[in-house]
Amino acid sequence: MGSVKVSQLTKEFSGVHALKNVNLDIQEGEFFALLGPSGCGKTTTMRCIAGFEQPTSGTIQIGEAKVNHIPPNKRNCGMVFQSYALFPHMNVFENVAYSLNIKQLNSSNIAAKLPIYLRLLNRKLGKYPKPIEQKVMEILEYVELDKHATRLTSELSGGQQQRVALARALVMEPAVLLMDEPLSNLDQKLRHSMRNTIRRIQQDLGITTIFVTHDQEEAMSMADRVAVMDSGEVKQIGTPIELYSRPSTPFIANFVGTSNVLKGTVVGQENGYSVVKGHGFLIKSTNHVEQKEVNVIVRPENIKAFKPGTISSDELTNIIEGTVLVSTYLGSIVRYDIKVEEYQLVVDTTFVPGESILTEGEKVQLTIDPERVLLI
Amino acid sequence: MKNRLSSFNGLTLVKVLIYLFFGVFLLLPLVSVFLVSFTGQPINLLGSITDPNILNSTIEKFSSASFDNYEKIFTNKTYFSAVQNSLELAILVSLIVIVMCIPIAYGIARTTMPFKKTIAALCTIPLIVPTFISAYAIIIMFGRAGWVTYIYNSLGGEGMLLNPYSMAGIVLVQVFFFFPYALWPMVAAFKVSDISLEEASLNLGARNWFTFIFVTFPLAIPGVISSALLIFTVSFSDFGTPIILAPKDLNLLVVEAYREIAGFFNWGGAAILTVIMVLVAAFFFWLQHLFTKGKNYGSVSGKPKQQKLNDSKGLTRTLSVYSLVLVIIPVLAMISILLQSLATTWGKNPLPNGYTLSHYQTIFSSSMGNIQNSIVLALGALILSVIIATFVSYFVVRQNSSKLDFMTSIPLVVPGIAFGIALIQTFNTAPLHLTGTALLLIVAYTIRRLPYMVRSTMGTMRAIKQDIEEAAVNLGATPLTAAITIIGPLMLPGIAAGSILVFITVIKETSISILLAPADWAPMSLAIFQNILRGEYYTAAAMSVVLVIIVLILQAIANRISKNQL
């Protein structure tokens, strides 16, 4: 088991910067997600850690040791590939036993190597030693695949293949578990249950895990900490709650959940509030920043919508007038697109059965709690 | 620098060895023959490195280098007419093949022609037969005592319908035994045009024939031209037909080059002819490449195309009869060989005078050695090419080693006879005195057939995703172990199919065998060739039948394997 430290990692592909000065400090036993849109460098970062890419500059440490010059086969990073990359000519048992065979191969003399090669080439050509068999069956039991040990991987369902890939990576007792978009090939329902399975196994084994995904919901629900990446750079690192409540840039505010982003200028302080003026609105925030030009970030669920004249007296700060453009019923919530001057705000309100939904073209008054207005 | 050193592992060593192999056995001979075309005397490049005396004499030879040989192409009548005749032959054959194949290709691709499957199956027959056997079959049919001549004469014709020992005879063999090389690409070309295009044309008021001429056919033209260029190269490089059929007064490059080296040991003359052959073949190969690359109107898109098949009764029946008549000729040729092998004697009659198995007895008692040699040599070439091709495709696909890709496709453009001459010239003295050994023969076969093998293994290699290999490495395997335990087994079907094809082509190989095979390693092809020269036609026929049967069986196995592929 080990921590992973990535310092000033830079990677160029024929002149193009795929990674720019990436720094990560992942604790032992932590479940760490790399989140970002495709092409942001998250997979490249992972491949650098696994050793499949050589960094242009920067260092990678696993545990105490710098691993830059250790070839990928000696890094002991278990990896679960996006496509699972199961060996199609081997059955489930053989897939999982592969790394154990290799380990034995590396520690035996030339004469002893031959039978290992033979059983690697064809299961009929050699018997597996008891310890290997036991270990493989143990881990297969753990992922509930012991009954499928002799199946070919092509005969398994997507979820089962995923678990074989996981078992294959875990059986080598890796220092770090790397997972590259492991859930992207599964259907919605399976994805949910696999999330829980993976999280449970990770907690059980206490294994340091790095998880690459473009799905913010996946990252937020599974990871202890998340690094958001964009165009080769790490934009912010934090716990899911920190990322959601205090995004450091408008990009993150929008990538992690939905946000309304308005541009404005801080015009003064008033009773402990910062007052921000934008095109056609004046808004107060409990947030204080040094710069004048700011982005005002408000989550859709933090805006309340009222029919004109129905606002209660304790909601008198930050009243904004607008018109409903579109209303979308989403089950537990109703989402409104509301036009305010030249802006369009997204507002989520809890749907209360029996209450009427605002219709298109209707005038509304919006209120925002100053404590929920973030300035960045 | 550190990176360089750490990546110098087992695989890098293999790569270096492969480069060395190609360097010594392909590039060195070609370079040598090129130099000899200037000096007129054999050049020993390897010797020049190891022995200062040889180096001195090499330098001396270079000082007398001249363009004399190049002038000879124009001044020496024999050379000039050889170039002329060879070009003429190749152009003639490719034109006839294209014109002949257009209806068949259209029939297979775009109509509901009856007997389509039979016709398609019969079209593969010419490909299994070595050309010198086909040439010999044509003699049995059209020769002075041939059965075609008999029929022709009894219908009132005089002399022979067609003299096999002439340009016409050579054209006849090449047309009927090379046309499948053009047919299949042309069938594909006729499928380029999409039904929606043709319906658009009909919708705009054009008639069917008008649509064919102005829509379907123009779309097929790039494919057709590329087929013509392919046939040109195949015909130009063919040695088997001319060596059997070319009369003394008909000079062809391949035959002339063979005579210079085997008859007169004229190194300079052979070298210049070799250089011309390679240049012409390379030029046309390049031209063909250019054509397939540039103007393939999206025929490779993954979108499945719907095609309307022409089912007009009159047209499909005419096409079917036409195709059957043409396709049946190679079959008749093979039947003639079979009959000859079973005949006690066969004079100027439609059928042999009597039947016997004694010729087979003869070859199985006296020529077993040739069969054995063929198999051992082919096995040797097979093993060597499997190993090299597997690694080459690994380097090309996984490491983008385009240099290696280029190097392994060089043999495609070098006619067999040219390559043979280059090898003889390079390896007939120390330090690598290999001429006359089975080893050089195996190496020559291997290099000549490697491009096909590499193509087959490269296809399978491309189908294996990179991450499967990375998974193995991630699980602790070195790249070499991953190659052996994961890539190797996954490539097995491709390797098996490819290696059988190598085996088949090596057994069929004529030019290299005739030039390089020492007496005690004579393979079947050489034995048949010598039998024909000696006039032992019946045993030649029997041996040919055995050869064709071996090829047929292997071909069937290869088809099986490639069908079962993942």
From TrEMBL, chain A:
Gene3D superfamilies: 2.40.50.100, P-loop containing nucleotide triphosphate hydrolases
Protein's organism: Fictibacillus phosphorivorans
An example Gene Ontology molecular-function term: ATP hydrolysis activity
Protein name, as recorded: ABC transporter ATP-binding protein
Keywords (A to Z) from UniProt: ATP-binding, Nucleotide-binding, Transport
InterPro entries according to UniProt: AAA+_ATPase, ABC_SmlMolc_Importer, ABC_transporter-like_ATP-bd, ABC_transporter-like_CS, Mo/tungstate-bd_C_term_dom, P-loop_NTPase, Transp-assoc_OB_typ2
Pfam families listed in its UniProt record: ABC_tran, TOBE_2
SUPFAM superfamilies: MOP-like (SSF50331), P-loop containing nucleoside triphosphate hydrolases (SSF52540)
Entry GO terms, CC: ATP-binding cassette (ABC) transporter complex
The keyword Nucleus belongs to this UniProt entry's keyword annotation: no
ABC transporter domain mapped to chain residues: 4-256
Superkingdom field: Bacteria
PANTHER family registered for this protein in UniProt: SPERMIDINE/PUTRESCINE IMPORT ATP-BINDING PROTEIN POTA, SPERMIDINE_PUTRESCINE IMPORT ATP-BINDING PROTEIN POTA
UniProtKB/TrEMBL annotation, chain B:
Domain of life: Bacteria
Residues in ABC transmembrane type-1 domain copies: 83-288, 371-558
InterPro entries assigned to the protein according to its UniProt record, in alphabetical order: MetI-like, MetI-like_sf
Membrane-topology descriptor: Multi-pass membrane protein
Compartments where located: Cell inner membrane; Cell membrane
Membrane-spanning residues: 12-38, 89-109, 121-145, 165-188, 209-232, 264-287, 321-343, 375-397, 404-424, 430-450, 471-492, 537-558
Keywords: Cell inner membrane, Cell membrane, Membrane, Transmembrane, Transmembrane helix, Transport
Keyword Transmembrane helix: yes
Residues forming coiled coils: none
Pfam family, one: BPD_transp_1
Record-linked CDD domains: TM_PBP2
UniProt GO cellular component terms: plasma membrane
UniProt main location, coarse: membrane
Family: Belongs to the binding-protein-dependent transport system permease family.
Protein name, per record: Iron ABC transporter permease
